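Worked Example 4.2. Read the sequence first, then its structure tokens.
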Amino acid sequence: MGTAISLDLADDLPLDTLHDLAGETFGWLREVDARFSTYRDDSEVCRVDRGELRVADASADLREVLAACADLWTATDGFFDAYATGRLDPSGYVKGWAAQVASDRLVAAGAPNHCVNAGGDVRVRGHDATGEPWRIGVRHPWEAAATCLVLTGTDLAVATSGVYERGHHVLDPRRGVPATGLRSVTVVGPDLGVADAYATAAVAMGEPGLAWLDRLPSPWQHAVVTEDSHLHHSRTLPTLPPS
């Protein structure tokens, strides 16, 4: 998926079991990459985009993702748009969705304490190896080696969309131009795929994205850094002082 993915399994399980769980998790993520990559000519996404594969004949996973993207288009007033670039690209949902599915599978397999980190989109469950709640650092949008917030919890999906690595790459689908106004948007909630899409949509909205995020119902929470260096976040966001 064009990003680094890490897995922290914190349960006291036999080593062979942990290796098997890790292998199954990374196997799933490689499967997602093969199916949803916009860079591989033989992926299902590219074949659908070229008209070589009908959605009705595609895999159940692809049909599920496209249905979710359609729902998210409605929920975000069109600002989350899998066709914003003019071609099919559900990447703003897929990475978080894939990590969420991986986390759900680990829970079902008897590993309820873990952290899946897909390029900064993070799903944590339970506790870390020391028995403490997980700590998730949110990257400082100007200082690569620093954090601007540290979140803590035992059941969190944390997705961040920003312009600090790839520049203004998120398109405003209404105007067809790169969105500006928000430097970094972090969304926290119960589902990483939805959090990923919400963060992308808010960046696409620009400064009006702040008001849109404020209207999201509980348990959704957010933290936003604007281009003029102001930090805004939900009052109930589970934060710790950065370390």
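Now turn to a second chain, presented in exactly the same format:
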Amino acid sequence: MSKHFFGDTTALLGRSLRHITRSADTIITTTIMPIAMMLMFVYVFGGAIKTEADSYVNYLLPGILLITVASGISYTAFRLFLDMKSGIFERLQSMPIARSSVLWAHVLTSLVANLISLVVVVLVALLMGFRSGAGVPAWLAVAGVLILFTLALTWLAVIPGLSATSVEGASAFSYPLIFLPFLSSAFVPTATMPGPVRFFAEHQPVTSIVNALRDLFTQQPVDTDLWTALAWCVGILIVTYIFAMATYRRRIA
């Protein structure tokens, strides 16, 4: 059964990746907004924002990376919605393939596309002056956190992709996710925020993830932020996977 699943997923993943290569503009579109946001905050607002970092782009980058992922997953929901409406799912289900491989192919395609976008954003940040003394283990830890975060949000994107009734509804869910880093430590220290906003910012997942990435980039000792970030990512991943699979079973029943 496992060989059947992995073989089916690999074949369907190849199909999805070919669609990505034919429409590279989706990756370009995904990276434009985070890069524009990074340019604006560094060169327009950066001089007025006080942080403990020696360079504002160093402080800002972790939050921009999360916004990049939140922007990219909207295309996963969009592609799923189109496949559902075009009848491709029904045709695939009539074939002797593992049912869950259809979803996993979309999820892994999202992971690949988002990783490419993240690399592009990091390269632009390097041109803007981002510097990190982090070694290979720290960079691998950063990659691990971002992969977990991407998988968690991608499985969340699967739910509206399967259940939405319009293209707009399939992708609109990502807007609150893009906005969430603004209510975190991504752009300014939470200590500068008023009481209720500060409480929310300090207890939502983005702040822990941003702080963990920032500590890894700056070679700070691993503290509770990293473990809290991992707990948030794994918890969201498990919950969204369960709901996504339940939604999928209802749609193909």
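Notes for the reader: Residues 31 and 117 are 6 Å apart (CA to CA). The chain has one domain: 2-252.
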